[in-house]
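Q&A log
Question type: sequence-to-structure
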Amino acid sequence: MQIWIFFCNFAAIFSKKLNFCKKMENIEPIIEEQLEPKEPQQMTLDPFFRIHDFLVAHAFMPIRRQLMDEIDWEDRLIAIKGGRGVGKTDFLLSRVKEIETEWRNMPEPEYKGRRKPRKSLKDIRPCLYVSFNDFCFTEHTLLELAGAFAKTGGKYLFLDQLFKYPNWSRELKRCYSKYRDLHIVFCATPVMPIDEDNNDIKGIVKTYNLRGFSFREYLNIQTGLKLRSYTLEEIIQRHASISREICERVRPLDYFRNYLDHGYYPSYLESKSFETELLKVMNSQLEVDVLMIKQIDVACLHKLRKLLYILMQDAPCALNVSNISEAIGLSRATTMNYIKYLKDSRLINLLYPEGKAFPMKPTKVYMHNTNVAQMNIARVIAPIDLYETYFYMAVHGAHKVNATDRSAMFIVDGKYYFDVREKASMRDTIRPTAVGEVELGRGNQMPLWLLGFLY
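Response status: OK
Response body:
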């Protein structure tokens, strides 16, 4: 009897397990079907064109940037490199607007002596601006975008926030090779590897630097004038006559102090707190340009901020790496690397003697521009410190600026020795001297503000 009961119980348990397995067999195909990745939908450009049209219609550039005429737009791969807040996006949109305006103003085509009506921009789209902030690029690729645009007959593809896309340089090279009628222009942050630092696009990309407003551009915006730029040689040789010609049309010193305070960044034109906006820019430079792109642990952000604050307290100044390392709790080597990151992100400038460069210690540290230099609310910066910072900022974009062993403050391009002074001297100086508080030049003493006419 007990044996019979045992077999009955065993049969019941076996039957339940068998039924359970059959149920699992029925469920398994459903699970597999649910886990299969969906085929990505074909990329449609209509949403991008809607955003493109809105942004181009509302783009505002108060003046035409000089860089616009320095770029060879026939190149097929162009990088516009610039620090945060200097107007790279507006620069791209301004170029888009120019191309589309030129396209509209082209004469209507003729066929057998008769003019054919020109198609509208809705039918033929020569340009497309795309920001890689769009989440669709988690599923679609840059190559798909370029292919879809090229298929419509598009010629100029403008890309923003490209650093957020993985393997961006590798795909740019593929686009360059595959779509030979397509011109690609992209924004690049200062820390993105371009040119010689990037084997993917080395030799095929042409890089241009977009800086903040020069004093000349600021003056033109504020006055509505169209004052032209001058070369450094022109300024050195005939600064007296140039400054006199400009002063016949405007009083530059009436605007110079405001420019040093807030004129470098285009955000001063917006009806917002300039200091608040500049703080956002500076923090983005640390949090995105340094931490994200350089792939530094976010736990190091506080040390980076502290390092920047220490430099803001004294710059322009000699660099005491040992004291700074102790203050922020890092090794000397790591501190020097962090200083290099701040330079690469265009928060500071480093002045080296001729023939010297990183990782050697610089002669002096400057803030990148006078607007950033005045962001330390605990410090009233001395005029001469502000003028030195302005000199470096104005000249080093297109010229090589170094420290010198002589009594001069700077040597430019290895041949021009310069001093910077707050006030003019009664006697003429031996070498070119940029003076902060004079409007007209005489002898070797030139107005410091005039160096803001280099671009």
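Response note: The chain is about 45% helix and 10% strand.
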